[in-house]
Design a protein that fits this description.
By secondary structure, this protein is of the alpha+beta class. The protein has helices spanning 12-16, 30-37, 57-63, 105-119, 136-144, 163-168, 175-187, 201-218, 230-249, 296-307, 324-332, 391-401, 411-419, 467-481, 496-504; strands spanning 69-74, 77-82, 89-90, 95-96, 130-135, 151-162, 191-194, 259-264, 267-278, 281-289, 314-316, 337-345, 382-385, 423-430, 433-444, 449-458, 486-492, 508-518, 524-533.
């Protein structure tokens, strides 16, 4: 296949220009998408028997604007491309429209990578040609089809539940969900439910805006495993939800989406939309609730499954986007199984933007955490960027500074962090010996970038000597030189020593995070999210 290249970094619209015959995902494309998902026409269809939540026309249509999607046909296959993140990628593997073309899947995958490589040839950072959202079934087909040698990296998978479990919320594991649902019903005796009609859409959009602004405030500075700010993901989610609501306001013939809105005393407090992926599996694609109506998420989720998805035996709630909070919520409903998703690329791509996303690191002092330390004058300390050769010394610091193996980085994680282009890793030296290290990760938000202090650790014998202060101040200055003025961190609420240090260099408390940390013995403790905003002259 012949492609052309550009002499500059392409914007999303430019990137899609590399795709021959690229077409936005329109309503009238439903037939070709559904034919591809059925494996083509008779006489020898090979349908996708266990589709993940992404493998539906409705999902592709509703996400098309937010993810800059366009599709084209290559040798009898539907190929869906995205230009959303400054590089050209695919949001689904190639799907055979014509079953007679299925044996050419390997050649089509090769052609798709040629197209992506041309679009990603130039520009800042490390462009990544890749195919995302590959189900296990499609992965087996691609592996057996020949084509280019590709690495397979796990992505966050779909959470699947027994419908009956979500309706009943039975058992000890879901006791808290039942309590919240009961609380909602007690506090909202005039609750009503109904299908969403075109007349309800403007009110749903108003609630959507309230949900967005409240979530932006509560989750300021957070990012997913790929270090994409959750505000970016939330903005995309809002645009996608508007598309779902548009399908209700202006329905497509023969396409019926189950939906439900919840009112309390006539006031809209939540709405949800789903679809059937197979006759026995339904998905919950949209769920938005009023931020001040406690228990609404538990009530609407359970009631929607009971009354609108009653013919399904399984409920697919989609993946968690690599967001810790969403991962916790979806896991707390106790999924019966997970549907794997895989990312395919020429070279391995780390699944996570951080080596251990569930662990938030903090500076530890050898003195008791309940005492606010008197910070000594720092001893002379040199700080420089870490190199791969420093990994062994950093590992020794981990073993010295952290008594619990669960709190330590291992050697592969340290190496990946040093190699991560979005990480800033430094080591502190005294008399030529490495005595501490620090790491920050750079996140991308809608209109700005932020930093997150991810690790500050010093050898036990160097605690309290100023090495930690030297590391954090150098780290902050480094981020400021890159134009990053907003920096976040999380720390245990009881670790007054670390909080005192962070406060002394300009951090302030943003909010308390209830039960944010779970120790090895299952004990939950609160965390504190802190922020530092650099100003001129600061």
């Amino acid at each position: 296949m012949t492609t052309t290249s550009a002499g500059r970094h392409a914007e999303p619209s430019d990137l899609l220009a590399f795709v021959p015959g690229a077409t936005p995902v329109r309503r009238e494309d439903r037939a070709v998408f559904e034919r591809a998902l059925r494996g083509g026409a008779e006489p020898t269809p090979s349908p996708i028997t266990a589709p993940i939540s992404d493998m539906s026309f409705v999902a592709s249509h509703c996400w098309s604007e937010a993810l800059s999607l366009a599709w084209t046909e290559i040798d009898g296959h539907l190929c869906l491309f995205s230009g959303a993140d400054g590089d050209l990628s695919m949001m689904l593997p190639p799907l055979a429209i014509d079953p007679r073309a299925a044996d050419r899947l390997g050649d089509v995958v090769s052609a798709c990578f040629e197209i992506m490589d041309a679009g990603n040839a130039e520009g800042p950072g490390t462009p990544r040609s890749r195919i995302e959202y590959v189900s296990d079934e499609m992965l087996d087909r691609i592996r057996s089809a020949g084509g280019p040698m590709l690495s397979a990296t796990p992505m966050p998978g779909d959470y699947v539940y027994h419908r009956g479990a979500l309706v009943e919320l039975a058992g000890g594991d879901l006791k808290n969900k039942r309590k919240l649902r009961s609380k909602f019903l007690r506090e909202n005796p005039e609750v009503t439910t109904a299908d969403i009609t075109p007349a309800d859409v403007p009110e749903c959009i108003e609630l959507l805006g309230l949900w967005r602004s409240s979530s932006d405030e509560r989750h300021e500075g957070e990012a997913n495993d790929r270090l994409i700010g959750v505000d970016v993901l939330r903005e995309r989610d809002e645009r996608c939800t508007r598309r779902y609501l548009d399908l209700i306001a202006h329905p497509i013939a023969d396409l019926s989406l189950p939906s439900m809105l919840v009112r309390s005393g006539g006031k809209l407090v939540g709405f949800t939309i789903g679809e059937f992926l197979t006759p026995s599996m339904a998905s919950v694609a949209v769920e938005k609730t009023h931020p001040d109506a406690d228990g609404t998420p538990q009530f609407i989720y359970s009631e929607f499954c009971r009354t609108r998805l009653e013919s399904a035996t399984e409920i697919n709630a989609g993946d968690d986007w690599g967001i810790d909070a969403l991962r916790f919520t979806k896991s707390s409903y106790r999924p019966s199984r997970m549907l794997s998703k895989t990312l395919l690329a020429r070279n391995p791509i780390s699944e996570m933007g951080t080596p251990e996303p569930a662990t938030v690191r903090l500076l530890r002092w050898s003195r008791p955490a309940h005492r606010t330390p008197e910070l000594p004058e720092p001893l002379p300390t040199d700080v420089r960027a870490a190199t791969a050769a420093d990994a062994e010394a950093i590992l020794e610091i981990e073993e010295s500074a952290f008594t619990s193996p669960a709190d330590r980085f291992n050697a592969p994680q340290i190496r990946r962090l040093i190699e991560n282009p979005r990480a800033r890793v430094a080591v502190a030296l005294r008399d030529g010996v490495i005595i501490g290290w620090s790491a920050a990760l750079i996140r991308t938000h809608r209109r700005w970038r932020s930093g997150r202090v991810y690790s500050v650790a010093v050898r036990a014998e160097a605690a309290g000597t100023g090495a930690g202060r030297a590391l954090i101040t150098t780290l902050l200055r480094s981020l400021e030189t890159e134009g990053i003025t907003r920096v976040y961190l999380e720390v245990r609420a009881g670790n007054l020593a670390a909080i005192a240090l962070y406060t002394s260099v300009g951090f302030r408390t943003l909010r308390t995070l209830e039960a944010y940390y779970t120790d090895a013995d299952g004990t939950e403790t609160d965390g504190v999210r802190m922020i530092r905003v650099a100003t001129d002259g600061a």
